[in-house]
Design brief:
By secondary structure, the chain is of the alpha/beta class. Helices cover 54% and strands 10% of the residues. The chain is built from 19 helices and eight strands. A five-stranded parallel beta sheet has the order 5-6-7-4-8, sandwiched between helices. Strands 1-2-3 form a three-stranded mixed beta sheet, with helices on one face. It is globular. The structure holds adenosine-5'-diphosphate (ADP) and magnesium ion.
Length: 451
């Protein structure tokens, strides 16, 4: 097989086994630049990708290559400046890391739009956020250069704002002359509408188009207000064209934002996308330990783990539980133990208002909205793949979140045979075990159900 075809085949295999964001980040601009005596040299766009492939994907890449061509026995990665051409030796293509600016030896004053507590130091890295973390570090190294825009997406309370502001804070700390602007998409909208009213749009444009780093949080709320979107679009283009860094967050990938213009979707997707998912137990425990340590409190690992087990999908809730736990122990003058944690949890559980279960219609509506479909598509008869999978997901959620019976689910989803519902639910259950993207989708819809 010719090397180009071989690499295409390898990428084809890898694409289905890694998340969409990881794939486009790490594999998009790679190629085989030489093959000799079973030794393959893979060209990568920068040192950062090189390290990442070596660390995270080397075994997978090797295994797939060996399967395609038994003669291949070793693989190495080289930074290649051209897409499929010469190799730039060992010289990193990355700009040299910033040296600390002498002016930053004193205390750093963040711009008012940034929260100084959101730093890289206070951010705990685990499997759920390492891609987004690494991407943010890369942006920090050479803002505006490669990963532009950086698009971070994931569920509520998983650290998107923290991470983006950490980049802003660190860029500002290293170089106080840099103009960093952070705004939520709602803030952007409101400010623009008010400028419009006061006939001050010129000043508004000047403010956002003359920054070095623009951070826009929760872009999914940049509603379809036409003039605001237009203004944002031009701001984006102006900054992008002059190589100013743009960082965007959202609760879902650009393609999945209902009502977002295609031209914005494609611009967002053109940069670097990184997802953050719910942290595993180990990461949750580490976050708790680090937050406690920041307050000068050392907690026993067992108590931490006990708390971490109870709060799985939202780090903000986890932090809230920690604060309550510390207060709970202090007020009662007791040691922070597992027993104390259990006592606290029973309190929290009993005082929390019971959540009303969402109606089946809500499941259909939210699932449809998430996939940019109409509720009638879900309950209708069309068999297109784009509709069938969301339909199956909605049945899965009705079964697992609402506990509905199969005949009831079938009735709700357009009067299908109840074996169809059974089949759909078990199909999604099986897929969830292997399909990371599907897991993220289902998780995102679940979060919306409880809003
Ligand atoms: P999001 O913007 O994704 O909704 P936030 O960035 O507001 O989430 O994070 C919610 C809270 O959880 C914040 O207080 C943040 O400091 C904390 N947090 C999230 N992820 C981490 C992490 N990896 N390490 C430490 N704290 C975290
Ligand atoms: Mg946020």
């Amino acid at each position: 097989m010719e090397t180009k075809g071989l690499w295409q085949a390898v990428l084809g295999e890898l694409e289905v086994s890694v998340s969409r964001a990881s794939f486009s980040t790490w594999f998009k601009h790679t190629s085989i630049i030489s093959e000799e005596d079973g030794h393959i040299v893979v060209g990568v766009p920068n040192i950062f990708t090189k390290e990442w492939l070596e660390k995270k994907y080397h075994d997978d890449i090797k295994a797939v290559l060996a399967r395609m061509n038994a003669g291949i026995n070793s693989v190495e990665y080289k930074v290649s400046t051209k897409k499929s051409g010469t190799v730039a030796g060992n010289k990193p293509a990355e700009a040299p890391a910033h040296t600390k600016s002498p002016v930053t030896t004193g205390t750093y004053t963040p711009p008012s739009c940034l929260n100084p507590k959101y730093t890289f130091d206070s951010f705990v890295v685990g499997a759920s956020n390492e891609l987004a973390y690494a991407a943010s570090q890369a942006v920090l190294k050479s803002p505006g250069q490669k990963y532009n825009p950086l698009y971070i997406y994931g569920g509520v309370g998983l650290g998107k704002t923290h991470l983006m502001q950490a980049v802003g804070n660190e860029i500002q700390r290293r170089d106080p002359s840099k103009r960093v602007e952070y705004v939520t998409s709602e803030g952007f909208t409101n400010e623009f509408l008010s400028a419009l009213q006061r006939k001050k749009t010129g000043a508004f444009s000047a403010k956002y188009r003359n920054v070095d780093v623009l951070i826009v949080d929760d872009i999914q709320f940049l509603a379809s207000k036409e003039r605001t979107v237009e203004e944002f679009f031009h701001t984006f283009n102006t900054l992008h064209q002059s190589s100013k860094q743009i960082i965007i967050s959202s609760d879902k990938p650009p393609q999945a934002i209902a009502g977002l213009e295609d031209r914005l979707k494609s611009r967002f997707a053109s940069g670097m996308m990184a997802d953050i998912s719910a942290p595993d137990l180990e990461t949750r425990s580490a976050i708790l330990q680090s937050k406690a340590a920041a307050q000068g409190i050392i907690l026993p690992a067992s108590a931490v783990e006990h708390l971490a087990r109870h709060f799985q999908n939202n780090i903000r809730e986890l932090e809230g539980a920690l604060t309550q736990f510390i207060a709970f122990c202090e007020l009662r003058g007791i040691e922070p133990s597992v027993a104390a944690a259990t006592g606290l949890l029973s309190n929290i559980v009993s005082t929390r208002p019971a959540r009303r279960a969402p109606a089946p219609k809500a499941v259909i509506d939210r699932t449809a909205a998430y996939f940019d479909l109409k509720p009638a598509d879900i309950t209708g008869l069309k068999r297109d793949k784009e509709i069938v999978v969301p339909r199956q997901i909605s049945m899965y959620l009705m079964r697992n979140e609402l506990g509905l019976s199969f005949p009831k689910i079938s009735a709700v989803v357009g009067g299908r045979d109840h074996t169809t519902a059974m089949h759909s639910v078990s199909k999604i259950e099986k897929l969830l075990e292997v399909d990371e993207n599907l897991r993220a989708d289902v998780q995102a819809i679940k979060e919306r159900l409880t809003l």
